Target: F-box domain-containing protein
Amino acid sequence: MEALGAPQSPPSATTATSAVLDDDHLLDEILLRVAFPTSLVRAALVCKRWLRLASDTVFLHRFRDLHPPSFLGFYVKTGGTKAPRFVLMPQPPELA
Model:
């Protein structure tokens, strides 16, 4: 039995990680903050539980609100009878 006021040893990294990953609310917040939709898809492939969290309709609405679609490019019409040309905007490597 430990005396009152005695310092407690810090939890191990495994215990701390398990405490976060076993909590659906915390895991939901972590998945919500991944930078790209492609990363969310990769996270959903980890296990059935992560897939359930990442494919939840409420979660997806929150994700979309936090990460609006990015501007991929635009069309340029140069005149004459030529069809408009699509100009691709630079994208992060994750979306390339």
Observations:
- Residues 13-70 form one domain.
- The chain is about 45% helix and 10% strand.
- The first helix runs from residue 13 to 21.
- The CA atoms of residues 44 and 51 lie 4 Å apart.
